[in-house]
Write a structure and sequence with these properties.
This protein is α+β, with helices and mostly antiparallel strands. It folds into two domains: 99 residues, Protein of unknown function (DUF541), domain 1 (Translation Initiation Factor IF3, 2-Layer Sandwich), CATH 3.30.110.170; 101 residues, Protein of unknown function (DUF541), domain 2 (Alpha-Beta Plaits), CATH 3.30.70.
């Protein structure tokens, strides 16, 4: 008898709890990632479109020799010429940086016997005057660079532009929240949290560059580039 009474009381409490939720305001969310009641979570995106003013290009020298010492010695001599040519073309020393140096054995057609070695040295060069980018590439190739990658075009003030994009992203998030809240008959309150999402697009776009012919400056078109920022903002509802 006592067991039946406890079961009846428990069932009554469960029904009462369920009925207590009837008529309560529904939770409004732009997505299901924020579990807090009385809030709305939205994402915002901000974009700044600008013209690049900086070009970064990678210049490599690949040499071969019958011995490792011969391959590396020749490679060092050739790369020294390329670096000197880049400096003469106007690239500052602070804008030159070695990317990697490698030495690999070369095998015969059967892949059994070492027949020589290949040495590679690569350096990146930043050109801060796009009008000179083509001439710099040509100078490096004429000096012996036989592996060219780039240029990658960007802005020297990339950080400031990204901050501007962040501000636009927050404003975009607030605008979305107000539309959703207005449709639900409530108002957007104070910001509860703001999180920066990883950058998913925009930024400098690399341009493919084939081996240049000696004496011919490569044409470089700057075009435009976009700096994109994304945020997630949680607002209170009132």
């Amino acid at each position: 008898m006592r067991v039946r009474r406890l079961v009846w009381i428990t069932a009554t409490l469960l029904v009462a709890s369920a009925l207590a939720g009837v008529g309560a305001p529904a939770l409004i969310r732009a997505d299901s990632t924020d579990p807090r009641p009385g809030t709305i979570s939205v994402t915002g995106s901000g974009t700044v479109t600008t013209e690049p003013d900086t070009a970064t290009t990678s210049f490599g020298v690949v040499t071969q020799g019958s011995t490792a010492r011969e391959a590396m010695s020749q490679n060092s001599e050739e790369m020294a010429k390329v670096i000197e040519a880049l400096k003469r073309a106007g690239v500052a020393s602070k804008d030159l940086q070695t990317q990697y140096v490698s030495l690999d054995p070369r095998y015969d057609n059967q892949g059994r016997e070492v027949v020589g070695y290949s040495a590679t040295n690569s350096v990146s060069a930043i050109v801060r005057d796009l009008a000179q980018a083509g001439a710099v590439i040509d100078a490096a190739v004429a000096a012996g660079a036989n592996n060219v990658s780039g240029p990658s075009l960007s802005r020297d003030d990339q950080g400031k532009l990204y901050n501007d994009a962040l501000e636009r992203a927050v404003a975009d998030a607030k605008a979305k929240a107000e539309v959703l809240a207005r449709a639900a008959g409530v108002s957007v309150g104070a910001v509860q949290s703001v999180a920066e999402n990883p950058q998913t697009g925009g930024g400098p776009m690399p341009m493919g560059y084939a081996a240049a012919a000696r004496g011919i400056a490569a044409p470089i078109e700057a075009g435009t580039t976009q700096v994109v920022a994304n945020v997630r903002v949680v607002f209170a509802l009132s």
